[in-house]
Amino acid sequence: MHRTILGIEGTAWNLSAGVVTEEGVLAEATATYRPKTGGIHPREAAQHHATHIASVIRKAIESAGCTQIDGIAFSQGPGMGPCLRTVATAARALALSLDVPLIGVNHCVAHLEIGRWQCGIDDPVMLYVSGANSQVLAYRQRRRCSISKRPTPQYRGGRYRIFGETLDIGIGNALDKFARHAGFSHPGGPKIESEALAATEYIPLPYVVKGMDFSFSGLMTAAKDALTKHSLADVCFSLQETAFAMLVEVTERAVAHTEKNDVLLAGGVGANTRLREMLELMCADRGAAFHVPEKRFMGDNGTMIAYTGLLMLASGESLPIEDSVVIPDFRPDQVDVTWR
Ligand code: ATP
Ligand code: FE2
Fold first, then answer.
1. Is any ligand 1 atom within 6 A of the Cβ of residue 189?
2. What distance in Å separates the CA atoms of residue 51 and residue 48, rounded to the nearest whole number?
3. pLDDT band at residue 173, thresholds of 50, 70 and 90?
4. 75 lines ligand 1 (CB under 6 A)
5. Does the beta carbon of 271 lie inside 6 Å of ligand 1?
6. Given this model, what pLDDT does residue 150 score?
7. Single pTM value for the model
8. Which superkingdom does the taxonomy of this entry point to (predicted)?
9. Angle of helix 189-196 relative to helix 273-286, nearest 10 degrees?
10. If you placed Cys at 33, which of 13, 212, 251, 310 could pair as Cys (CB 3.0 to 4.6 Å)?
11. Is the CB of residue 171 less than 8 Å from the CB of residue 216?
12. Are strands 24-32 and 14-21 parallel, antiparallel or unpaired?
């Protein structure tokens, strides 16, 4: 049976609707909120989504040319509360009026699932680096309890475990904050990347990995201070080298621990050429394969929500309207992965 799912994403500044079937992606439409000054303002972003959500959904469905929708998937979290609520309201209304199942998707899990699908890989370690998120994830099968005398409950799936994550802010937000301080407009990541190309010297900056977790706020403060003594190019370069080395170290340790053979990159910061280069070197060293999906599937997109919704619905999961409250701090390891 071919199901057609509409997925809606709007956890932060990107509002996007995608339509997929088991066969592939039928269509995607997007509207991006761009703050006039400073960073993302959650209420302004939510207002943007409310203004554009009807036209974005209509455009996606019209370009998909489908006559039937079998389920509505939406980003249930993590993300900014006002943005999540706007998207959830539209998703509930659509599911009710079309009388089809509603599917609540974890945004981080969706990044992983679309990467697996698009890169044709089964079981990667994923480094997910975006504005608000920085995590190293990998699938873990649930263990049977060998000492329990109780009958084994029906045994389905496992979870995406978080092997390491940021202890404070996401790497993208950290780069954006530094960039704003240095006088660049939002988003700052790409500007730091191009400025770093002119560097001549590496300046030591705080390298903070605690166990399997990392932290960026001390590094950002030190980088801002370094601007008083060093050139912008050198600081941008050193900031990238230090922050990315932290991310690559934790990813490498997760690969070593899980003995998986594939590394997947996801999230907007994954556009960075230097980060890719460092991950590629690490993977080559370990004999692992490094995978980067097409750019449109790396950042936040409605297609990843639709596709994950499709997997979930096919494994029998849907969300009653009364349980469809948004979860701004929704962690990927809270999700039972019933579709694997
Ligand atoms: P979420 O955190 O909810 O996934 P987001 O909208 O913050 O959503 P993305 O769109 O995935 O995340 O990523 C945006 C971030 O990516 C911004 O912080 C931006 O500075 C950063 N970024 C984009 N291009 C580059 C680049 N070339 N180098 C470094 N950072 C980049
Ligand atoms: Fe994201």
1. yes
2. 5
3. very high
4. no
5. yes
6. 58
7. 0.94
8. Archaea
9. 80
10. 13
11. yes
12. antiparallel
